């Protein structure tokens, strides 16, 4: 099982929602400032925050459906 990493920007509503949802679901994660990792995020073709890296997958925006899939996959492994 790999770490969940969330790249965020200050004052980002979707970043706050993602942080809150992960916390409510009990998912441990590392939060990093997106501005310090722009080359990586661009290489992954993401231009908006938050960007979530989890279990070999990645997405941008507040995606509770994707978070729920990660949680379910971890329960089943």
Helix content: 40-55%
Unreliable sequence segments: none
Spell out the helices and strands N to C: EHEHEEH
Overall pLDDT: 95
Strand content is 15-25%
Second-tier CATH architecture: 3-Layer(aba) Sandwich
CATH topology: Glutaredoxin
The total beta strand count reads 4
Intertermini distance: 9 Å
Instruction: Characterize the largest beta sheet: strand count, sense, and whether it forms a barrel.
Output: 4 strands, mixed
Number of distinct helices: 3
Helix vs. strand class: alpha+beta
| Overall tally of domains | 1
Name of the CATH first level:
Alpha Beta
Strand order, largest beta sheet: 2-1-3-4
CATH superfamily: Glutaredoxin
Q: Outline, from the CA principal axes?
A: globular
Rounded to the nearest angstrom, the radius of gyration is 12 Å
Describe the overall structure.
The structure is a single chain. This protein is α+β, with helices and mostly antiparallel strands. It has a single domain, classed as Glutaredoxin (3-Layer(aba) Sandwich). 40% of the residues lie in helices and 22% in strands. The protein has helices spanning 13-24, 38-43, 64-76; strands spanning 4-8, 30-33, 51-54, 57-60. A 4-stranded mixed β-sheet has the order 2-1-3-4, with helices on one face. Helix 1 (13-24) links the parallel strand 1 and strand 2. The longest helix is centred in the last third of the chain and has 13 residues, at 64-76. It is globular, with a radius of gyration of 12 Å. The mean pLDDT is 95.
Summarize the structure.
By secondary structure, the chain is α+β, with helices and mostly antiparallel strands.
């Amino acid at each position: 099982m790999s770490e969940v990493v969330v790249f965020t920007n200050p004052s980002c509503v979707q970043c706050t929602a993602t942080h809150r949802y992960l916390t409510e679901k009990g998912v441990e994660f590392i939060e990093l400032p997106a501005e310090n990792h722009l080359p990586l995020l661009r290489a992954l073709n993401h231009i908006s925050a938050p960007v979530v890296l989890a279990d070999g997958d990645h997405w941008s925006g507040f995606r509770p459906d994707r978070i729920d899939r990660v949680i379910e996959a971890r329960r089943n492994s």
